[in-house]
Automatic annotation (TrEMBL):
<protein>
    <submittedName>
        <fullName>Oxidoreductase</fullName>
    </submittedName>
</protein>
<dbReference type="InterPro" id="IPR003953">
    <property type="entry name" value="FAD-dep_OxRdtase_2_FAD-bd"/>
</dbReference>
<keyword id="KW-0285">Flavoprotein</keyword>
<dbReference type="InterPro" id="IPR036188">
    <property type="entry name" value="FAD/NAD-bd_sf"/>
</dbReference>
<feature type="domain" description="FAD-dependent oxidoreductase 2 FAD-binding">
    <location>
        <begin position="5"/>
        <end position="533"/>
    </location>
</feature>
<dbReference type="InterPro" id="IPR027477">
    <property type="entry name" value="Succ_DH/fumarate_Rdtase_cat_sf"/>
</dbReference>
<dbReference type="InterPro" id="IPR014614">
    <property type="entry name" value="KsdD_DH"/>
</dbReference>
<dbReference type="Pfam" id="PF00890">
    <property type="entry name" value="FAD_binding_2"/>
</dbReference>
<keyword id="KW-0560">Oxidoreductase</keyword>
Length: 551
């Protein structure tokens, strides 16, 4: 039987980071990945590439005053740690905030990573200072998006492969953790048929062989559950979010199936907070899908009006870019699993950004000229225009009456009343005319435009939605989009997997989303965005270094 110093289960971002650290320490490492050879980077490859960092040169150049203390205040207000088992999540979270406010940027910069100079303001919260949300912009968009994040670690791994330190075995699906004398000593599973599908597309699961490999340490970095909607519904927290949606779109490929959670549990690993999850409410069906039921998220700035399925405007703080899970709970409270944006063409042109590296080819291709051409608000970026032309969830009409009729036709349930919708929009439009406003969304828009980055690139000047000069009108039907797992394998700060008694399992580590994003379920109940990729990097680094015997 082949023997290694360490086996990494999963070739996503966390797995690459762990393997890179192991290789740097001279450890003989095996990466087993159930998908094909061009899938390194996993889900992170498809991401927008945002990273949560604190008090950076990019922030300071834009006049953003951030600090470790403010970031930790925001994290605690969002996580809302309230369970005895949140001991390690809290410890891991504090260690990550120290990392994000400390060496993170310099370490990544030294490997060649760069960022768009305008820092994004995601998940703004919109309630109290000690509550959920980012008090200041912290979303650092990697130049090159998700592939740019993956590339710096894949390059290090490929260098170790060339030296004979690291071996890659694709189409190897782990089904068992081998346990000897109380310690994890290897992995076993099935060799799958060769796959000739493109990255992200669904691959086959026919078995053509078996394998078993031995190692001193095993690091599980197999990702979350977002591609397995049955498992999402099984773990759904009905007490906090309401009944699970009957209909959802998939924000992640099919292979993000959560199967390693049960496999690790069978070997004695403890899981934690599996009812904590992170899904988005601004999902649209991809008109040009890559994986089954492929959904894309609209990352909107604050201006579009948001209505539930019954045609009632969402109240504060349930505005675009403010409070993802709070809005999810509010939408599901109607008994329906969809909602609507209503906006002007001016808003769509400047405020709509679509998630995913493939939806932002100017950033992904590191094309400065294309970015400046596409993002200055004169007209919608090419990917947004494509959805306006081809997306089944998008409606454009010149009058509100025609728009509402088309919305009712698309939903098929006829729930929207034109007069009720007009009354709410007209009330909002009157607030735009005033120098001051009691409308929380209008106040939020004006606050956002005080930030130079939002004013130039993201947030339109407040204007009347029903003024024909700002048209045509646009409505977008929004679906629930599955994405991230906030619970998972229970780990400590060193990424060691714990057993049911809270003791580290010899030889077993976990990193990335399978361990609740960044290790030990460190998000708590809510995420601050940029903390998923950042958590994979942080926990993957910890796992690799600790498995190699380094601090």
């Amino acid at each position: 039987m082949e023997h290694w110093d360490a086996i990494v289960v999963g070739g996503g971002l966390a797995g690459l980071v762990a393997a890179a650290e192991l290789g740097d320490a001279g450890r003989k490492t095996l990466i087993v990945e159930q998908e094909g050879g061009d899938w390194l980077g996993g889900q992170a490859y498809w991401s927008l590439g945002g990273l949560f960092m604190v008090d950076t040169p990019e922030q300071r150049r834009l006049g953003i005053r951030d600090s470790r203390a403010l970031a930790w205040q925001d994290w605690q207000g969002s996580a809302q740690f309230d369970r005895p088992e949140d001991h390690w999540p809290r410890k891991v979270a504090e260690a990550y905030v120290d990392f994000a406010a400390g060496e993170m940027r310099a370490w990544l910069y030294g490997m060649g990573m760069r960022w768009w100079p305008v820092v994004g303001w995601a998940e703004r919260g919109g309630a109290l200072a000690h509550g959920h949300g980012n008090s200041v912009p912290r979303f650092h968009l990697t130049w090159g998006t998700g592939p740019g994040v993956v590339a710096v670690f894949e390059r290090r791994v490929r260098e170790h492969v060339a030296k004979g330190l690291t071996t890659l075995k694709f189409r190897h699906q782990v089904s068992r953790l081998v346990k000897t004398g109380g310690a994890i000593t290897g992995v076993a599973g099935e060799v799958l048929e060769p796959a000739d599908v493109a990255r992200g597309q669904q691959s086959g699961r026919n078995v053509v062989g078996e394998f078993e490999f031995a190692a001193a340490n095993v690091i599980v970095t197999s990702g979350g559950i977002g591609g397995n909607h049955d498992l999402v519904r099984e773990m759904w927290p009905t007490d906090r979010l309401g009944l699970a949606p009957k209909s959802m779109v998939a924000g992640v490929p099919h292979h993000v199936d959560g199967r390693m959670l049960a496999i690790a549990e069978k070997a004695g690993a403890a899981t934690i907070n599996k009812d904590r999850m992170w899904h988005y409410v601004e999902g649209i069906r991809n008109w040009n899908p890559i994986w089954p039921n492929h959904g894309i998220r609209i990352l909107s700035a604050p201006s579009p009006m948001w209505f539930d399925a019954l045609g009632e405007r969402l109240e504060a703080p349930f505005f675009p870019s403010y409070d993802s899970l709070g809005t999810l709970r509010r939408i599901l409270s109607t008994g329906h699993d969809y909602s609507w944006f209503v906006l002007t063409s001016k808003m769509a042109a400047k405020e709509f950004v679509l998630s995913g590296s493939e939806q932002n080819l100017d950033f992904t291709g590191k094309d400065w000229r294309a970015v400046l051409k596409n993002r200055r608000g004169g007209k919608a970026p090419p990917s947004v225009r494509a959805f306006l032309d081809h997306g089944e969830d998008f409606i454009r009409r010149d009058t509100l009456r025609d728009l509402v009729a088309a919305m009712n036709e698309l939903s098929g349930d006829g729930l929207l009343d034109h007069d009720r919708l007009r009354w709410q929009i007209e009330a909002r439009d009157r607030e735009v005319e005033a120098s001051y406003s009691k409308d929380a969304q209008i106040a939020g828009i004006r606050n956002a435009r005080r930030y130079l980055g939002d004013k130039i690139f993201r947030v339109t000047k407040p204007h009347k939605i029903l003024d024909a000069r700002n048209g045509p009108l646009i409505a977008v039907r929004l679906h629930i989009l599955t994405r991230k797992t906030l619970g998972g394998l229970h780990t400590n700060v060193d990424a060691q997997v714990l057993d049911s008694k809270g003791e580290p399992m010899p030889g077993l580590y976990a990193a990335g989303e399978v361990a609740g994003g960044g290790g030990g379920g460190y998000h708590g109940y809510n995420a601050l965005e940029g903390t998923f990729l950042g958590g994979c990097i942080f926990s993957g680094r910890n796992a690799g270094r600790r498995a190699a015997g380094r601090k």
